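User: Could you check the structure of this?
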Amino acid sequence: MKVISNNPFVLKKIEDNHPVSGNPLDVLLEVRKFLESGHKLVTMPLPANQRLFMNPYRSILVDKPSKDMDMKGLVLLEKAVERFRSQVFYDDQGADGDFALMDLEQVMISMKMV
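Assistant: Sure, the predicted structure tokens are below.
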């Protein structure tokens, strides 16, 4: 499994990662490239609630590539990309660590569940 992320906490903690510079939309666009090359989507591209939509960090898990393209994952991802295109992300530097930690915790829980 590989994590695609713009979160420095995640990139530091999880060894098999693919760093992305930019906002959560940039992360989703990078995930699209992985899905198009045969990887499978493991975690949902949309956050659980509206407050988490504002999180400037996003981390998505993908599985190893296979011969079949993950069409369901691509559809979910495209819907998320459309939603994120109009999203404003929280940019308060004082809460930066809190947002990064929330994203890290979600990834760590997801990895344990898979």
